[in-house]
Specification:
Layout (H helix, E strand, L loop, with lengths): L20 E7 L5 E11 L3 E6 L2 E6 L3 E6 L10 H4 L2 H11 L4 E5 L2 E5 L10 E2 L8 H13 L6 E6 L1 E3 L2 E2 L3 H11 L3 E12 L14 E5 L4 H6 L1 E2 L2 E2 L4 H5 L4 E9 L2 E11 L2 E9 L8 H15 L4 E7 L3 H10 L2 E10 L2
Parallel strand pairs: 8-9, 18-19
Antiparallel strand pairs: 1-2, 1-5, 2-3, 3-4, 6-7, 9-20, 10-11, 12-19, 12-20, 13-16, 14-15, 16-17, 17-18
Organism: Kineococcus xinjiangensis
Protein name: Acetyltransferase (GNAT) family protein
GO molecular function: acyltransferase activity, transferring groups other than amino-acyl groups
Length: 337
């Protein structure tokens, strides 16, 4: 990242968001350099504050040589896309799909975005809420009631098999919510793969054109459907909430017949919003979209790729498995009675 006494190196301001895992190379008083690696607690025009394993480090902006976000640390001796822990990958995914309103509840994260998508309008339950469960759930209810939304908790969990929750704290929380009458919604699987092992970008079939853009145009936005409905007003902000994103479309003339969104964070590319119009299915367009997003991510240093798929979507799961994805973990939503 640079050497002491040399020219100032790259500071990636767009990555310096509180909560991100970062490394900050900075000058010490004796002229040598040191790295502060850990969670970024605060960032302003004067100071960066990093929680490291040795304690909190405050770095004056004038001493910063380089600063960037880095992927989560490995939790087991596996390839990067398999080595990451459930909680760390959930935090990565949350940064790719950021709600307009986010508030911490201990380690939990309350999220609201006008009701558009469950991911952006649910409490992400990771770690401890800092209070007992009844008090935590009362806080969740109050947060969503104030916004006219149903109270929803997203419960990530390990999986013993692709369709079964793992025992442990997440399983205990899920069981407690079920016992309190919180209904089950949309069990979902998180799949991961090594980006370089995914299909390579290739041309669209005859008569169709593949396009990539950093922003969604009216054709992309008009063709996107979430659960069969047009994009609401809050949707575009969510689609453009990552560090960087790409909007992929397959077009027949001016008509968008297939689309997807790719998003980026250090080490990771995410695939979301995949849609293929009914009359163009079974033509390999899903694989084409996946390859385009993976190629875009690989060019930007994303060694790992993730996506989320409904547990009961057998066709999509088969496509992704054939491309090289495996199940990393699962999550399910619990909705207040």
């Amino acid at each position: 990242m640079g050497t002491a006494g040399g020219a100032r190196h790259e500071v990636r301001e767009e990555e310096l968001r509180p909560g991100a895992r970062v490394v900050v190379r900075h000058l010490l008083n004796d002229g040598s350099a040191s790295d502060a690696l850990g969670e970024l607690l605060a960032a302003d025009a004067q100071t960066l504050v990093v929680a490291t394993r040795r304690g909190t480090v405050r770095v004056a902006r004038s001493a910063v040589l380089a600063a960037k976000a880095v992927p989560p640390p490995p939790q087991r001796p596996e390839r990067p896309h398999r080595a990451v822990g459930v909680a760390d990958l959930e935090r990565v995914m949350a940064a790719h799909w950021r709600a307009a309103q986010e508030e911490p509840l201990g380690d939990w994260l309350l999220r609201a975005a006008g009701g558009f998508t469950s991911r952006a309008n649910s409490c992400l339950a990771l770690g401890s809420p800092g209070v007992d469960l009844p008090a935590a759930l009362a806080g969740v209810r109050a947060f969503y009631a104030a916004r006219g939304l149903p109270a929803v908790v997203a419960v990530p969990h390990e999986v013993d098999s692709p369709d079964a929750p793992h025992d442990g704290p997440a399983g205990e929380l899920d069981a407690a919510l079920a016992g309190a009458g919180w209904g089950l919604r949309t069990p979902t699987l998180v799949l991961t793969a090594a980006t370089r092992r995914l299909p390579r970008p290739h041309p669209a079939p005859p008569g169709l054109a593949l396009e990539l853009s950093p922003t969604p145009d009216e054709g992309w936005l008009g063709a996107y459907r979430y659960r069969g409905t047009p994009l609401p007003a809050a949707g575009r902000a969510l689609l453009e909430s990552a560090q960087a994103q790409v909007f992929v479309s397959v077009r027949r003339g001016a008509e968008v017949v297939a689309l997807a969104r790719g998003s980026l964070s250090p080490g990771w590319v995410g695939l979301t919003a995949v849609e293929v119009s009914e009359e163009h299915r079974r033509r390999g367009l899903g694989r084409l979209l996946l390859a385009a997003v993976a190629g875009w991510g690989l060019e930007r240093g994303a060694a790992s790729t993730y996506l989320q798929v409904a547990q009961d979507n057998a066709a999509a799961r088969a496509l992704y498995a054939s491309a090289g994805f495996t199940v990393h973990h699962g999550y399910r939503y619990r909705v207040a009675p």
